Amino acid sequence: MLEKIDLRELSEISDTRPSFVSVYLNAMDDRTEKFLNKRERDCLNALKQERELKEIFKKNMEKVREFLKTGKTGGAKSYAIFSSSPKNFFYGYELPLEVENQLIVDTSPYIRPLAMLEEEWESMAIVLLDHSNARLYMISSAMIQDTKKMHKDIMNKHKKGGWSQMRFQRLRKGAIDHFFKEVSEYLEGFLEKENVRRIILAGPGSAKKEFAEYLPEPTQKKVISIIDEDIDVPEGQLLSDSFENFFKKEREEENEMVANLRAEILKGGLVAYGVDDTLAAVTEGRAELLLINMGKRAVGWKCELCKIFKPGSAETCESCGKPVFNVDLVEELVEAAKSLGTTLEFVKDNEFLDELGGVAAFLRF
Ligand SMILES: [Zn+2]
Question: Which of 157, 179, 288, 345 is the most buried (most CB within 10 A)?
Fold first, then answer.
C-alpha cells in the first residue's frame, strides 16, 4: 500500500556511484515485459566500459526479477522496485494504481512517481446515508480499505390509530438522532485510524445535510461535497462520483495555491520560483511548500560528493573535479523536499506556474 512506503527513507539514501536501480512497472500493460528486457539490454550496453558498475547493475536486476517472480502477492496494478546491491538495499512494492514503465540507474532511488501518487491519492471517507441506513467507506490509494454498513429500524409512516401525531414525530426524531450519533461516532473511529483530509456525504433527500450538523467541527471542515445519490447506488457509481468531486477539490486547492503564489510575488513576499532558485531554497531548508507542475522536467547534473546540483550539462564537478551525473532536477527537488519534510504539491497543467519555470516554493525565511 502506498501509505506504507517511507518516502523519507527512500529520499535519504544515496551512493557516490550510480549503484541504484529504480524500476516502475505497469502490470496492466502487456508491453511491460518487453520494456523491462529492452531497458536492461540498453543499460548493460551503456555500462559496457564500466565493469564494476555493470556487475552491480546485473546483481540489481537479478533481485528485481526475483521479486517479480516470487515476491509479489498478486492483484497489484503496478510495481515500484529499488535495489542497490553494494548498499544492501532492496524494496519491492505492489501498488494499487497504474504507473508509467520506467527503469532508472542513478546514485539514489528515483521517487518522483511515488511522491506524485501519494500526493494525488490522499485518503478520503465517504458516508452514504438516509434516515435509517448508512454505508461508510474508507478509501486510500484509490482502494476501499474499510467499509461499514449500519441500519436502524425507524418508523417511516404514522400507523393508523395508536400514537398521536406529535408523539410519533418525537419518537421518530429521537430514533434518527440516535442513529446519526452512532454513524458520526463510527466515522470518527475511521478518521482516527487514517489521516483523512476529505469527506464526502452522499444520499437521497435531506438526511445527509442534517447529518452534517452532527459532526464535530474539525470533521465538518473536512466535508468537501454533499452529493445526491440513491441509497442503493451501486458501489462503483458511488466511488466514481466521489472521485470526481475529490479531484475537482484537489484542482481547486492547487489553483488557490498558485493564486496565493501570484499574490506573494506581486507584494515581494517570501517565495522562490524557477528551477535554480527553488532548488537552492529547498536544499537549504527554507521552503515550506513546494509546487511542481506535474509534467515538468529540468536537465541538470549533480555531484554526490559535494552535494550540489546545477542546471545544464557537465562532465565534471566545478568544485571537486570528479565526474558528475546527469539528473532531472525536479527529481532532486522531490527528494530534497521529502528528506527535509517540505510539503509537496503537484499541480496539474497550470499556465502561470509553467511561465515561472514549472516549480515554485513558499519560503519560511
Ligand atoms: Zn563535486
Answer: 179
